[in-house]
């Protein structure tokens, strides 16, 4: 009998809850925006103005706003700063002054300043927001925290927001972060992990303000709207090169503390210019408005980027920089910074669309002009019969053809998209872009402005206003995701590590630079066009002393010795290999060359790839002498290094390339697969005394004796003299010492620091501890002459024979020599 009464009570409760929910749905919505670092430079210049623009866009559209400026500054001082900033806010030029004044007064009433430092401060802020929302009869929709603070404060702030200042159920949270997002891959991963413990990925908005530049934001839509015209042009067959440039006239004065830690590559290239690079180079998604599709295609572009090498960069530093650092950071008079303020980087993308097309990224301070642009220069494949004076801009294919995304400043003075009239007439949204008119006499990139279809925004908008609007509307495609960020650091960190101690070229600054910073690229190398005879960095240990040089004897292991500098040494060695190959092919019809991996032979590979166009590659067989037990596409694979630095640049028939079979049947170096035996049989079948005069074999020196079979699989090796006896490297497959000792001629190349001791250790006798000494026993009777790179004070030297041909790899235990040594062997 009581059951119907219970059901009535439950139904009544449900109705009350439903009615309350409907009433809550009907309540006006409020968004609270908390700007941390509200008194800082970025906030005063851009962020408050961006928040005001958001208010102007959204007022009257159903949302109420509250703006909380916060900082560590005292309440009284902070209120004074914020009052001045709010008074300086401006409205769009087409807004009536009276309406502007009214909205500006409203915005000021909705903005406040408070100190935000301790967890208790965050809790108090959250309670105040909740109380204000309830008092005004509103419903909280969400909170935006904009962190305009140094990155070292991110984790503590994130912890306080997560524990004390999250909005209630049903409301969203968005946390906005400003760069830098780490100093290298490791620090970026660490920061991402820590932030990820407090926020979901969809709650974080990492700002790269370049993605808010109107022209940058137009790159993907432009490509999408002009697919029909660009599909046949946007590739290696038609594009000569791509330039992505950001030049500044200002120097780093007042910011040297930041600049000393980051430099121009971390400040500009790793983020701004890399983001632009991916927008230009990525495959175009079917739906360019889908953040998920855009991110996926960006990541694919990152995966196709060729690894950067030391020769991929040129560095500069304006001459006044070190003095500014000494003054601002209280450094001693002897201090001289190596931080680059200028950098040019050569990037290649190894995919079918962009293979061989150079992408030039360049940025610097104290340059001759302030300008930013992306320039796609197309190949000139036409021959025009008429003289130049008869060429018509809209018709002649002999005039330069280019597309320029003019990001800002420079002679044009405003953002624009320029397309050569002899390419095609582009389609842009007419509601937001208009044709540039007038400007007679203005020339851009070698052509008068009239030779371009030129379009500029109908209404210019600063980057932060656009990005803040996208944050409010939850548009994630304009922000850097964790995956995107880490992919960028994976690409840039190795180059940054290799440049850490590089001395930049000094330049006077601005117009006085002249052609001093001009650079050029050839064969994958970047170099300054104007050589300098000498550049000294004064200070302790700045130049070698006479005592730093070592006099070399005329003999080494009872053979004549010739010394040379590294470039000459590599060139001579490569020339000798080519001469031997030509002789072998002329006599036997083929040439066998076995090569080792690692970093030391890279310069030789590059020399062979770019400086020896008569090399008989079509008749050359390439072998590996040592391979790690990893897949051939793994970055640690010696074959992958050979592919990157040599094979992809020369025309060797694929059936003449013989990688070691370390990866068979989806297994790595499995004994039952008999990969070593198969490789030995392949060598025996193809390399015979009657068919090949020259072949090059290799061995990697370890603390253990080499195997006795022709080809053997080796387990993880232990470093000689190691105290903990932990394995120092992965398993390998290698050629054996007995096979190597069948060679008639041997060459040794040693490059790097601190090689004198090991060179002396193996200079006489035969010690089983050093297998290389067993190989070198054949040298005196077979090869006759050595070349040794001249010593510097750091112990740099190189050894090789002018008549012998490289590829024998020699890795020394770390206790004996910290850098790898390479020895190269060749013979019949």
Strand order, sheet with most strands = 14-17-13-12-11-7-10-9-8-18
Radius of gyration (Å): 33 Å
Structural class: alpha/beta
| Major sheet characteristics | 10 strands, mixed
- Report how far apart the termini are: 107 Å
Shape: globular
Q: Approximately how much beta-strand content do the residues carry?
A: 15-25%
Helical content class: 25-40%
Number of helices: 22
Low-confidence stretches: 15-24, 534-552, 691-708, 716-728, 777-828
Number of strand segments:
36
Q: What is the average of the pLDDT values? A: 82
Summarize this entry quickly.
With 828 residues, this protein is an alpha/beta fold. It has 22 helices and 36 strands.
Explained architecture:
With 828 residues, this protein is of the alpha/beta class. Helices cover 33% and strands 21% of the residues. The chain is built from 22 helices and 36 strands. The strands form 9 sheets. Strands 14-17-13-12-11-7-10-9-8-18 form a 10-stranded mixed beta sheet, with helices on one face. A 6-stranded parallel beta sheet has the order 3-2-1-4-5-6, sandwiched between helices. Strand 33 and strand 34 form a beta hairpin. InterPro entries: 6-phosphogluconolactonase_DevB, G6P_DH, G6P_DH_AS, G6P_DH_C, G6P_DH_NAD-bd, Glc/Gal-6P_isomerase, NAD(P)-bd_dom_sf, NagB/RpiA_transferase-like.
């Amino acid at each position: 009998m009581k059951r119907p009464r219970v059901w009535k009570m439950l139904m009544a409760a449900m109705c009350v809850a439903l009615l309350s929910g409907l009433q809550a749905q009907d309540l006006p919505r409020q968004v609270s925006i908390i700007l941390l670092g509200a008194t800082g430079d970025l906030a005063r210049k851009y962020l408050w103005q961006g928040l005001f623009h958001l208010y102007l866009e959204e007022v009257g559209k159903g949302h109420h706003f509250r703006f909380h400026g916060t900082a560590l500054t005292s309440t009284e001082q902070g209120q004074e700063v914020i009052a001045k900033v709010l008074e300086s806010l401006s409205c769009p030029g087409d807004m009536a002054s009276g309406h502007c004044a009214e909205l500006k007064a409203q915005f000021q009433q909705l903005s406040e300043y408070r100190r935000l430092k301790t967890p208790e401060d965050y809790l108090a802020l959250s309670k105040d927001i909740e109380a204000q929302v309830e008092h005004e009869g509103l419903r909280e929709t969400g909170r935006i925290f904009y962190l305009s603070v140094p990155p070292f404060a991110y984790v503590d702030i994130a912890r306080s927001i997560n524990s004390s200042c999250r909005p209630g159920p049903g409301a969203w949270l968005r946390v906005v972060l400003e760069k830098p997002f780490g100093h290298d891959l490791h620090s970026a991963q660490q920061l991402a992990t820590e932030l990820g413990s407090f926020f979901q990925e969809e709650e974080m908005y990492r700002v790269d303000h370049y993605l808010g530049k109107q022209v940058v934001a137009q790159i993907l839509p432009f490509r999408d709207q002009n697919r029909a015209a660009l599909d046949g042009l946007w590739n290696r067959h038609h594009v000569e090169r791509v330039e992505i440039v950001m030049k500044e006239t200002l120097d780093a004065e007042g910011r040297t503390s930041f600049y000393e830690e980051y430099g121009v590559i971390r400040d500009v290239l790793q983020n701004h210019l890399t983001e632009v690079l991916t927008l230009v180079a990525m495959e175009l998604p079917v739906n360019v408005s889908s953040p998920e599709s855009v991110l996926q295609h960006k990541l694919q572009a990152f995966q196709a980027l060729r690894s950067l090498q030391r020769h991929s960069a040129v560095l500069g530093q304006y001459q006044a920089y070190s003095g500014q650092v000494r003054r601002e950071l209280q450094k001693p008079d002897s201090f001289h910074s190596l931080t680059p303020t200028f950098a040019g980087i050569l990037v290649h993308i190894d995919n079918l669309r962009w293979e061989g097309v150079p992408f030039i990224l360049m940025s610097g301070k104290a340059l001759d002009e302030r300008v930013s642009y992306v320039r796609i220069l197309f190949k000139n494949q036409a021959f025009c019969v008429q003289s130049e004076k008869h060429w018509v801009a809209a018709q002649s294919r002999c005039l330069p053809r280019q597309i320029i995304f003019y990001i800002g400043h420079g002679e044009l003075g405003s953002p624009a998209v320029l397309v050569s009239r002899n390419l095609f007439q582009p389609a842009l949204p007419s509601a937001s872009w208009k044709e540039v008119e007038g400007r007679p006499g203005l020339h851009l990139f070698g052509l008068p402005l009239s030779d371009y279809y030129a379009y500029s925004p109908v209404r210019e908008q600063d980057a932060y206003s656009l990005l803040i609007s996208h944050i409010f509307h939850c548009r994630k495609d304009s922000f850097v995701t964790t995956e995107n960020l880490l992919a960028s650091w994976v690409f840039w960190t190795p180059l940054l590590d290799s440049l850490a101690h590089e001395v930049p070229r000094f330049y006077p600054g601005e117009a006085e630079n002249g052609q001093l910073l001009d650079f050029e690229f050839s064969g994958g190398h970047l170099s300054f066009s104007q050589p300098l005879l000498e550049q000294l960095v004064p200070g302790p240990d700045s130049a070698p002393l006479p005592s730093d040089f070592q006099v070399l004897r005329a003999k080494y292991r009872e053979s004549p010795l010739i010394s040379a500098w590294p470039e000459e040494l590599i060139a001579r060695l490569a020339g000798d290999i080519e001469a031997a190959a030509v002789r072998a092919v002329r006599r036997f019809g083929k040439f066998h060359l076995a090569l080792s991996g690692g970093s030391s032979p890279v310069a030789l590979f590059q020399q062979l790839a770019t400086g020896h166009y008569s090399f008989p590659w079509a008749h050359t067989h390439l072998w590996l002498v040592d391979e790690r037990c990893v897949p051939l596409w793994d970055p640690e694979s010696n074959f992958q290094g050979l592919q990157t630095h040599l094979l992809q640049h020369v025309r060797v028939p694929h059936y003449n390339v013989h990688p070691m079979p370390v990866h068979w049947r989806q297994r790595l170096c499995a004994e039952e697969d008999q990969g070593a035996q198969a490789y030995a049989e392949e060598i025996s079948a193809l390399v015979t005394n009657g068919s090949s005069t020259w072949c090059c074999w290799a061995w990697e020196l370890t603390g253990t004796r080499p195997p006795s079979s022709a080809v053997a699989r080796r387990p993880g090796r232990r470093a000689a003299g190691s105290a903990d006896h932990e394995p120092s490297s992965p398993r390998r497959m290698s050629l054996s010492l007995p096979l190597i000792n069948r060679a008639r001629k041997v060459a040794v190349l040693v490059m790097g620091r601190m090689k004198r001791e090991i060179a002396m250790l193996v200079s006489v006798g035969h010690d089983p501890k050093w297998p290389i000494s067993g190989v070198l026993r054949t040298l005196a009777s077979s090869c006759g002459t050595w070349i040794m790179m001249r010593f510097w004070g750091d112990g740099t030297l190189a050894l090789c024979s002018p008549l012998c041909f490289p590829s024998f790899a020699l890795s020394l235990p770390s206790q004996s020599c910290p850098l790898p040594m390479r020895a190269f062997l060749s013979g019949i």
